[in-house]
Amino acid sequence: MQSRETYHRTDASHSLRRQKRPAWRQHLVLTERGVVGGIRGGSAFFVHFFGCSIVLATGYVLALSLMQWVAVVLSMTIVLAAEMFNQALRAIVVDPEDGGIAPQAAKALGISTAAVMMTILGGLIVVGMIFAQRVSHFWAE
Questions:
Q1: For the domain that residue 121 is a member of, what is the CATH number?
Q2: What is the pLDDT of residue 67?
Q3: Could you say which of 5, 83, 97, 141 is catalytic?
Q4: CA distance 7 to 54
Q5: Active site residue 83
Q6: What are the catalytic residues (predicted)?
Q7: Mean pLDDT by 10-residue block, N- to C-terminus, for the chain (141 residues)?
Q8: What's the domain range around 4?
Q9: Do residue 5 and residue 73 come from a single domain?
Q10: Number of domains comprising the chain
């Protein structure tokens, strides 16, 4: 059964049948490519993932409650999303050939980098408060 969106492409060696993806599936493909591009895009993501793995392991050891896990995961997600927005802006404003940046673009890039640092600090405060509360419960016992 072929849909109206099916098309054929003939190659010299063989024929390939491809279907145009539905909009929702194309959105998922772009999302996957964006996540992979964000992870491969810079060393900052390696640092974030390393920090996230330490936070997750510590949370497991401290036996966080459900709501504490929600706050920790939300904090990590916000930091990773902010870093991806920063990388997206960097990809737009930095000239790939010479690395040059227009003055207004440099200002926007500085603000986005500061926004990432603010989310990191906020996440550290939230996670630090949760971990401090759990550690104080262990010492009280």
A1: 1.10.287
A2: 97
A3: 83
A4: 49
A5: yes
A6: 83 (proton acceptor)
A7: 45 50 84 81 82 95 96 95 90 80 86 95 97 91 72
A8: 1-40
A9: no
A10: 2
Measured CA to CA, the distance from residue 96 to residue 130 in angstroms comes to 42
Are both 34 and 48 inside the same structural domain?
no
Burial class of residue 22 in the structure, from the number of CB atoms within 10 Å of its CB (0-12 exposed, 13-18 middle, 19+ buried): exposed
- Domain shared by 80 and 68, yes or no: yes
Q: Tell me which H or E stretch contains 109.
A: helix 103-140
3-state secondary structure of 99: coil
Helix H or strand E encompassing 14? none
Residues 99 and 68 reside in one and the same domain:
yes
Helix residue spans in 19-102 (DSSP H): 23-40, 43-61, 66-93
Q: Which two tokens stand for residue 134?
A: 């759990």
Q: Is 83 annotated as a binding residue?
A: yes
